[in-house]
Design brief:
This protein is mainly α. The protein has a single domain, classed as Orthogonal Bundle (ADP-ribosylglycohydrolase fold), CATH 1.10.4080. It is built from 19 helices and no strands. Helix 3 runs antiparallel to helix 18, helix 13 packs antiparallel against helix 14 and helix 16 packs antiparallel against helix 17. The longest helix has 24 residues. It is globular, with a radius of gyration of 18 Å. The protein starts with 20 loop residues before the first helix and ends in a 12-residue tail after the last helix. About 14% of the residues have low confidence.
Amino acid sequence: MTADLPSSSGFSASVPSVPSAASRAEVDRPPAGGSSAVAASFPAGSGARPSGEPGAEPGPAARLRRALASLRGLSVGDALGSQFSVPVNLPLLGRRELPGAPWQWTDDTQMACSVLAVLAGHRRVDQEALAASFARHHDADRGYGPAVNRLLRQVREGGDWRTLAGDLFHGQGSWGNGASMRIAPVGAWYADDPEQATHQAEVSAYITHQHPEAVAGAMAVAAAAALAAAPGGPPAPGELLDAVIALLPRGSVTAGLGRARDMLDHDDPATVAAVLGCGRQTSAQDTVPFALWSAARGLGDFEGAFWATAQVGGDVDTNCAIVGGIVAAGGAAPPGAWLARTEPLPEWVPTGA
């Protein structure tokens, strides 16, 4: 669940322009850092392989399997996390007890389903197709922020998403966490190429969130999911965050990730969340650093990662959607009993069956 935030008038970064039609379509361009940057993003001993080395699974079927696993983890994190936004369930959270079923997911999952559907249909993030899917499947009862609610309604009525998203908040764009919450399946899809994952995340973010911090947040989550899903296995927590940071532009999200890396030896999530934020402001910079801290420490243990993330409060469903999508991309599936209690994914989501 997201809220739309005006960006601070004192933010020093310039708002990026929406890429031209040609550059938006050119999704196979080499990453900015070149092949040497790809190699540098995989620390020695991490077990992860750059794209092109033996062991990568570049086929569409394998990509879809990974992305669908990430989406399922995202949906469980989102749906169960949203249950703890209900005051009556808060005592259960302290005892790590599950609320009654069914668990309904929010806009986090609804939009992530569109992301996966477009990847499966186009083998990349096609902005026009994704904007159309967001608008077609928009359900105002899922907890969208008011600005995105309005934007998607206007897109359905024929509005241009480029202008609509760019005009938000006096032309600065939204810096909310909505572009980050839906993007983990992109990282799983591009597990063999984390730099391409960040590029695709950037392309996807512009449809609704054009502030640099919102874009950076989406890039960070996609990079983390790609690294977690690396064919040779995920890197260690510190190496994962270092690799993510190396793929991002400078800014508040990146600075927060640096602090997250420095706090990996802290065992109390509440203390870390007090420093990094946990989505109470629903901004990317207040959400993504803690979510990636929790995901990096929780790879291999979906259940443990969920409880560590949820217990700090804040934007619980979005925090847990991000963490669930990353951890599931790394191969740690949600418990079967949790999946059974979670609202099924929509029938229009491709499964490859």
